[in-house]
Amino acid sequence: MGDITGPGIALLLLDAALAEMLLFAGVLFLIGGLDDLAVDIAWMRLRRPPLRLADLPPAPPRRIALFVPAWDEAHVIGAMLDAALSRYVHDDYRIWVGCYPNDRATIDAVAAVAQRDARVRLAIGGRDGPTTKADCLNTLWRALRRADARDGAVTDAIVLHDAEDVVDPHEAIVFAAMLDRFALVQLPVVPLLDRGATLVAGSYADEFAESHGRAMVVRDALGAAMPLAGVGCAIRRDALERLAGGDDAPFDPGSLTEDYELGLRVAALGLPACFVRVRGPDGLIATRAYFPDRIRDAVVQKARWMIGIALAGWDRTGWGARRPAEYWMRLRDRRAPLAVLALTLAYAALAGGALSWGLHALLGGEMPVPGGAVRWLLTIDALLLGWRLAMRCGATAAIYGAREGARAAPRAVVGNIVAMLAARRALVRYVAMLAGGAPRWDKTAHRFPAVLPHDA
């Protein structure tokens, strides 16, 4: 290279650093790629077509309560409640909405619907918000118990939903049929996409298409603990009473991902759960909702998920039953920080490689090319990446059509950027929690569709 006393030495150090980053990132990508490949192979062997609504076993009458925790949801909660009330196929249900005393706008919006329809009940907590979603759910649980005692009734199951959800009209039929055998029942979540939806919103569609189209199917088939998605899920009353114990708070108010943890806690009690895909008269019975369409909102939401599942999950939920399938699934839940580290190194190596190429062209000499085992490692990683993108595109296309399926590949880059930004935020927030900071409901803005999916 000629002179190696100045820029040449810097270039040598840069090339050495790039080689180390490629090796480290390549190993992490290999582990993650083989993990995903194993899930794909298991799914191919274990998958079953969705059940049909008509094939579900007959169920006894059940009284159910929909719990909707709401903080700063005045602009969507009224439309959500009206839609659910007008379309829900069940004879005996109530919709309980939890609010905070310092959120007058949401209280008024819920009260306006409750005045028109007695099936809507309003419960206001004793503390100003926001606290955590789990704390709000505990307010709803206590209000339900008081109402049941006053009315001489017994609510059989609780269904969780968010204030922006398009509730499937037929979900209660599925829950009623399954709750005799299972303490928890989770339906798929299908993000809504407008025509010309942003890459950010589309990345949610891709991720849920894979997660609720494949990964959860495998998890259910292997008998591993079933984490809840927080919406479109039903919990039998007896399971919540056992979780509540003597303090009348079945949802852990110190958790940022109470839904995820609830499924694991129920499994620890030895109670069965299921993830079920059922095809109804309008297609797959699922909860539909708009997800964040801006990077900032997506970062806020995914940072909360990362804190609750991947970071705090290590000490809050442990490793569950001593079974290989359980260890595998919980390792998958908690691999997000390592995946982000691999992504960060890979993108840094790409930027550093471009810089190295330019400096080699300027100073003379050839840029070193990985060889031997590293070349084979990167080749295998490239093949696994191609497989992963093909599977993701196929999962998205199965729900949203070929056009959205094709867009899933470039959206993966956007999802990676959001994940890296979310990891930084999650780490800062998690360190603050370890230092004694109280968890807070770090929610994002929501919207409700003007035209409901099945009515379009």
Structure description:
With 456 residues, the protein is α/β, with parallel strands linked by helices. Helix content is 56%, strand content 10%. Strands 4-3-2-5-8-6-9 form a seven-stranded mixed beta sheet, with helices on both faces. It has a three-stranded mixed beta sheet with strand order 1-10-11, with no helix packed on it. Helix 1 packs antiparallel against helix 12, helix 2 (77-87) packs parallel to helix 3 and helix 9 (295-311) packs across helix 14. The model has no long low-confidence stretch (mean pLDDT 91).
Considering DSSP H and I runs of 4 or more, what fraction of the residues is helical? 55-70%
Oligomer: single chain
Number of helices: 14
Strand proportion, as a percent range, falls in: 5-15%
Note the run of SSEs as H and E: HEEHEHEHEHEEHEHHEEEEHHHHHH
> What structural class do you assign from the helix and strand content?
alpha/beta
Question: Summed up, what is this model?
Answer:
With 456 residues, this protein is an alpha/beta fold.
Which descriptors apply to this entry?
about 450 residues; single chain; alpha/beta; 3-stranded mixed β-sheet; 7-stranded mixed β-sheet; 14 helices; elongated; about 55% helix
Mind sketching the topology for me?
Blueprint: H1 7-46, E1 51-52, E2 64-69, H2 77-87, E3 93-99, H3 104-116, E4 120-124, H4 133-151, E5 157-160, H5 171-178, E6 184-186, E7 189-191, H6 199-222, E8 233-236, H7 237-244, H8 258-268, E9 273-275, E10 278-280, E11 283-284, E12 287-289, H9 295-311, H10 313-316, H11 324-333, H12 336-363, H13 372-400, H14 402-434
Parallel strand pairs: 1-10, 2-3, 2-5, 3-4, 6-9, 7-12
Antiparallel strand pairs: 5-8, 6-8, 10-11
Helix pairs in contact: 1-6, 1-12, 1-13, 2-3, 6-13, 6-14, 9-14, 12-14, 13-14
